[in-house]
């Protein structure tokens, strides 16, 4: 008998969970509290309760080739980094292609998810929902929680003495939509995450002055990497991931620091991370350094105190006449519809096996999808999570004992703190390729490079030295897709296509072509180290 699965939320995690359920022959029903798909990526002028809220200008910080689902490349003419409306368009095409909308009950909020009395034998859940004021309950064999974790603002007012007497306006970045209304103001943005950097850069074009207050600093990277390729296609290769794993940590950090600092010296710009030997999520922002260089943004230390109109910083400097403070201080999360004990955050640790399964359940029939912050794109990450989970639901893959899972959670958390440190903003942080491979191994879709090398050396070189994108996990094993090899070999075409908007005449002299060949040979040698030629 097909298993009935409840999917909570129709954002990216919910959509891919639906597809994976269908692929595995399960019977999904998705409950989405709003009237449409897309979750976070569906911009609205107003902030809605219970749904993530973005500003109008949000653009992905992971590129299209690294962010698409593994058997569904983005259209060739899509830009490499996508405006939120364009990404939503991709989700719409995806949902249509795989006929997913028919499984979604819109304007239906999940109120509670409870274990059935016979849970220890059946593993079943009672899911109660509300639609137009009408409450309904139904029984499901499994539940995939895809409700997102950028909904509840983290706004640490107690760390800002004097905020109660501040006479200006203050709010969380979740409330920010666009720069209209901020013309001529003196604005302080708290934090130096991606939201803070985007909002400060945008506002600095309209405001009288923008200040950014950071307690720790951050590495800032450009979306554009070597030769103009998207950063993540160069950064996330198996070759560089292997180097990062085998070289001593200090050497890796030093190399990364050298690489990042080639763009600009972070110390001179007041941005250098305080503990630079830790790898927290970098900021991806091409505007921020230039806005600082123009003086439109001034970087400040931690806030010590606020008065009615001024901000006093830890270094003793004071900025008078501040009109607006924006807390771009990240998010917390909770699952009000779940029993308290199911997904716990204790001692800065999320108690989920591989960021998905509560280890204490007698039956592995409830998971969180997307409750993770990988150093790369979340889209292939949630896809592999959903592919694995649906196979666990079907009994095709198993989980270890509760004790082993708990040990793994603790070990993983220690490693996380060691790499990314303890801050609230890094609680869900994880390495990218290592995590993808870990899930791929569970499913049986990690390519075996040795046997593949004998059959298809050209492909293996691309897999190892080129970008580690999701197509790699459709080459072998369950869910194999015959278009995967071609998608890997043609990715460069899809990167360049949207850039080729001006036809250029090529010079065809023989000497130029010989010179090019010689340079090409040299490039192969050099590129072995920079592995760009495998794109
Ligand atoms: P969401 O998109 O938040 O969707 C959750 C859905 O669940 C919503 O539709 C909501 O209405 C619904 N829901 C919630 N509660 C209930 C309930 N009780 N009942 C029914 N429905 C419910 N990651 C990247 O990889 N690349 C990026 O470029 C990137 N950019 C980002 C930019 C911003 C501003 C932010 C905040 C995050 C970004 N991320 C990025 C990370 C982000 O987490 C993912 O991009 C992704 O959108 C998360 O999808 P999700 O489906 O898990 O959650
Ligand atoms: P975030 O990454 O959690 O960053 C929060 C920032 O607030 C950090 O700089 C943090 O500093 C600071 N902060 C937290 N508590 C503080 C306190 N008490 N006092 C002072 N500072 C404090 O949140 P976010 O920027 O909103 O990003 C959330 C997620 O969305 C991230 O994964 C991000 O990549 C993503 N995003 C992507 C884009 C895009 O371009 N596509 C845009 C926006 C957001 P510490 O580091 O010192 O803790």
TrEMBL record:
EC number: 1.-.-.-
Recorded GO MF terms: flavin adenine dinucleotide binding; N,N-dimethylaniline monooxygenase activity; NADP binding
A single Gene Ontology CC term: endoplasmic reticulum membrane
GO biological process per UniProt: energy homeostasis; NADP+ metabolic process; negative regulation of fatty acid oxidation; organic acid metabolic process; oxygen metabolic process; toxin metabolic process; xenobiotic metabolic process
Cell compartment(s), UniProt: Endoplasmic reticulum membrane; Microsome membrane
Alphabetized PANTHER family for the sequence: DIMETHYLANILINE MONOOXYGENASE
Protein name: Flavin-containing monooxygenase
Species per Swiss-Prot/TrEMBL record: Jaculus jaculus (Lesser Egyptian jerboa)
Gene giving rise to this polypeptide: Fmo2
